[in-house]
Amino acid sequence: MATPAAEERHATWLELFFGLVIVAAVAQLAHLLHDGVTFEKVLIFAFAYYAMWSIWTAFTLYANVTGTRTRQRAMLAAMFGIAVMASSSAARRTADTRAAPRCGRRRSRRRRALATP
């Protein structure tokens, strides 16, 4: 006798949005390595990526087990936490670029006006 197949489950809109948040967060995190690859940046990327990936995996498994009983507040809180991690990596990137020396920049209008005879 054949056993009836389990009913096929489709992802909810919240799960799809969670996946989109993860993609945006990882893309934001990848910009950390755009300007130059250093050991510190790779280490930050690896830890942050692992944190985002493990949260996403845990909630995906949770949603698969619970089905329609998925707790929306918990998923929204996880999405918020991942968005905070992604924005902190962007803040780190802009802080690194601001700290860089400004060699070879164009002179301001006032300096150019004073320099011309």
UniProtKB/TrEMBL annotation:
Residues 90-102 have a biased composition (Low complexity). InterPro entries: Low_temperature_requirement_A, MFS_trans_sf. Residues 90-117 are annotated as: Disordered. Keywords: Membrane, Transmembrane, Transmembrane helix. SUPFAM superfamilies: MFS general substrate transporter. Pfam families: LtrA. The keyword Transmembrane helix applies. The chain crosses the membrane at residues 12-30, 42-62. Residues 103-117 have a biased composition (Basic residues). It comes from the Bacteria. This is Uncharacterized protein. It comes from Dactylosporangium darangshiense.
